[in-house]
Amino acid sequence: MTAVSQRTDGASGAAPLHGRALAMLGTAASALVAAFVLVPDTLAASGPGEGFGREDELAEALRAAFVAYWSSGERAFSPDLDGLVGYWFRYHVAKAVIAALLLIVLVALGTLLRKALLKADGLGAGKRFALAAAGVLATTLALLSLAAVMANVQGAAAPFASLLPMLPTGATGGGLGAVLAQVRERLAAAPGAGDHAPGALDVMIGDFARYHEAMAAIAATVAVVLLVMSGLSWKRFRGTEPAERRTRRVLGSFGALTALSALFVIVVAVANATTAAAPRPALLAFFEGGW
User: Fold this and answer.
1) C-alpha–C-alpha distance, residues 65 and 63, integer Å
2) CA-CA distance, 258 to 271, in Å (whole number)?
3) What angle separates helix 199-238 from helix 55-72, to the nearest 10 degrees?
4) What is the pLDDT of residues 2-14, one digit of tens each?
5) Cβ density class 281-290: b for 16+ within 10 Å, e for less
6) Radius of gyration of the chain from Cα atoms?
7) 95-106, pLDDT tens digit by residue?
8) Cα separation of 180 and 172, whole Å?
9) Is residue 253 a contact partner of residue 235, using CB atoms and an 8 Å limit?
10) DSSP per residue, 223-279
């Protein structure tokens, strides 16, 4: 009788503790989502240069700095562009760190929810459905957080190339339109043909290649991790008794999801590696509005 009471007391004490852990992780995830949106600009503005409250302010500053940089003929960034690149680097680092913390919290939250679902025999159908729905949401947000980590690490690795999409590449008038026309002309010419190309062109091509090299390496690493996770999940699936249908369903779903995610990430890695191997045509396509 005493042993039974101890087991019952232990089970009843574990449930509130489990619930508190879920609540704490959910609160932390919500706070990190808000921080991901609100904090990076403040952190990025703490370094040299100024902050930019809106993206259009950053784009406007970039247009003027890019024209001056191209016109200078130098490889080294002009002071204005150097400040923008430094700001954009810090911005991506801040976003990458916050997204990584969010990913850790969401993985922990998803793990707890999965364990709770597997031990939900005594719960009603409504509570089991709520646990399953929360697990799906946590997994989806974790995948989005992973994508955010990957994209922001890529941006931090090549901040100049990461800034280029803010240029209105279709502009035809004014100083920017003339500079963009020169960029397209130089990129379309065979390497080494004609007059000596501006130093900015080599820097742009090099940073563009590094931008895609970074994503190729990141995606390849993530793909390996996802494949290992999928393999472990399927191994546990095969070792689970057929009668444990809920456990097999959860393990099989997770194994399939991670395997499909790995295949997608492999495609991303191959595409970026291909672009990094021949960056000039891809950069030309970008400035022609086709990328």
Assistant:
1) 6
2) 20
3) 130
4) 444 444 444 444 4
5) ebbbebbeee
6) 25
7) 999 999 999 999
8) 8
9) no
10) HHHHHHHHHHHHHHHHTS-TT-HHHHHHHHHHHHHHHHHHHHHHHHHHHHHHHHHSH
At 19 the pLDDT is: 73
The token duo for 58 is 């950053």
Q: Say which amino acid occupies 211.
A: Y
* pTM of full prediction above 0.85: yes
What would the DSSP string read from start to end of the chain?
-HHHHHHHHHHHHHHHHHHHHHHHHHHHHHHHHHHHHHSHHHHHTTSSS---SSHHHHHHHHHHHHHHHHHH--SSPPHHHHHHHHHHHHHHHHHHHHHHHHHHHHHHHHHHHHHHHHT-TTS-HHHHHHHHHHHHHHHHHHHHHHHHHHHHHHHHHSHHHHHGGGS-TT--SHHHHHHHHHHHHHHHSPTT-SSPPPHHHHHHHHHHHHHHHHHHHHHHHHHHHHHHHHHHHHHHHHTS-TT-HHHHHHHHHHHHHHHHHHHHHHHHHHHHHHHHHSHHHHHHHHHTT--
The first and second tokens of residue 84, run together, are 């923008």
Q: Is 165 exposed, middle or buried (0-12, 13-18, 19+ CB in 10 A)?
A: exposed
| Distances from the Cα of 204 to the Cα of 79, 131, 173, 253, 255, angstroms | 17, 49, 22, 43, 41
The type of residue at 25 is L
Q: Which residues of 269-279 are buried (b: 16+ CB within 10 A; e: fewer)?
A: beebbebbeeb
